[in-house]
Structure formats: structure tokens, C-alpha cells
Amino acid sequence: MNEQLKLLIDLQAIDTIIINSKTKINSIPQKITEFDAPLKAAQTSLDKLQQQFSATDKKKKDKDQEIDELKQKVSKLKTRSSEIKNNKEYQAHLKEIENAEKSLKTAEEAASAITGSLESISKDINVCKESVKTEEGKISSIKEELNKEAAEAEQELKVVIDKRRVLVKQIEKSTYDLYMGILKTKRGLAVVNTSNELCHGCNMHIPPQMFVEIKSNSEIIHCPQCRRILYFRDNSDNS
Ligand SMILES: [Zn+2]
User: Fold this and answer.
1) Residue 174 C-alpha to ligand 1 middle, in angstroms?
2) Distance between Cα 27 and ligand 1 center (Å)
3) Architecture of the structural domain at 24-170
4) Which of 55, 68, 106, 191 has its Cβ near the most Cβ atoms within 10 Å?
């Protein structure tokens, strides 16, 4: 086999590993963001519940103040009862007490309903806090796993890049430049195997005479359509 062609085949194998490795490393932050989503959702729910609790608690305090005021009103009205002489005025006074007591009762019922709501929100908050805790635990172990994967991939990448450096030194500059030009424009695939007179890069049919030349692996031959460098290895596993 042509020595330069052999080196290019090896270089392509290394570059494929590098490209896949970089893709893997670059996908990790996105993966972490995706795994973060359930935690963010749980935290948002918790925030909403806590806001709801504060608003309801404020309502409860206002209602309690209203109750205090109504109690004072009833009490004042009752102390004034002995001062009233006129019967008509007295009837009106009793009516006023009755109305104030009614308002007090309504306010007390409302306060009790608000207390019920507060208890219910409180329970929901506790449930939500638990799920935040669970999600935090999950994401923390996932993050640890993914960061470990990234570190391992970085390490592997370093080793492969070192191998590449050694290999590139053996390749003639013009051949290397040719390879790099194709690699950049052909999405990381510059050197491809052929079989059954087909280019494995673009699936174009290779003219029979050219295929005979490719099979000899004695020179660098480009696919007439995609310009990739072609070689022949009679092994379908390494196509
Ligand atoms: Zn092709």
C-alpha cells in the first residue's frame, strides 16, 4: 500500500475518534441542563406555594384585626346599653348590637376558613420541599457521573491528540493540506473505503477502471463526485 495513503487512513481513524470525543464532551453541559429541569420545576412550585402562603397569612392577619375591632365594637355597644332611656332608641341599639355580632360571626367563620387554607398550603409546601430534596439528590449524582464522563473523555482525547501529532509528522505537507481541506468541507470525513464500486462517502458509483486502480491502493485517488480520498480494504467491518 502507498505509505502516504496508509498514513491518511490512520489519520482519518484518529480524527473520527477526536470528532466523536469532542461531540460527547460538548454535549455534557446541555445534558446537565436537561436533567436540571425537574429540579427547577419543583423549585418553581415551591416558590409559588410560599408566595401563596404569605398572601393567605396576610389575609388571616387582616381578618384577625377585623375580628378584634368587631369585638371591641360589640363590647362598647353593650356598655352603652344602660345609658339609653328611650325605647325606640333602645330597639335601634339592640339591632346595632345584633348586626355587629353577625358581622363578628361572619368574620370568625372567614378566619377559620383561612386557617384551613393555611394548613393545606403548609402541607403542600412540605410535600414540595421533599420533592426539591429528592430532585437535588438525583441531579447531584447525575452531575457527578456526567462530569466524570467528561473528565475521562478529555483524558482520552489528550492521548489521541498526542498520537495524531506523531502521525502527522510522517505525512507530507501537501498531502496533509489536501486531507485537511477535504476534512473541513466534508463534515469530518476525508478518507473512505470503497466496495462494490461504490464510494462510502457519497455512495457514487465508481467507474470500473478507476475501481481497479483504487483496489491496488498504490496512489491517492479522489472520488469523482465528493473529492474524498478513496482506498480499498476487503473487510466489511472496517468499511
Ligand atoms: Zn464520493
Assistant:
1) 21
2) 29
3) Orthogonal Bundle (1.10)
4) 191
pLDDT in tens, 121-168: 999 999 999 999 999 999 999 999 999 999 999 999 999 999 999 999
> Distance from the CA of 185 to the center of ligand 1, in angstroms?
13
Query: How many whole angstroms from 204 Cα to the centroid of ligand 1?
Result: 6
**What average pLDDT score do residues 83-95 get?**
90
Phi, psi of 193 (to 5 degrees): -75, 165
Q: What is the mean pLDDT of the chain?
A: 94
**What is the 201 CA–ligand 1 centroid distance (Å)?**
5
Sign for the pseudo-dihedral over CA of 103, 109, 111, 117: negative
Helices (H) and strands (E) in the chain, counts: 4, 4
Integer Cα distance of 200 and 207 in angstroms = 14
What crossing angle do the helices spanning 87-169 and 3-80 adopt, rounded to 10°?
Answer: 170
User: What is the whole-number distance in angstroms between the Cα of residue 228 and the centre of ligand 1?
Assistant: 6
Tell how far the Cα of 113 is from the centroid of ligand 1, in angstroms: 76
Q: Is the entire prediction scored with pTM above 0.85?
A: no
Measured in Å, residue 206 CA sits from the centre of ligand 1 at: 8
User: Which regions of the chain carry the CATH code 1.10.287.1490?
Assistant: 24-170
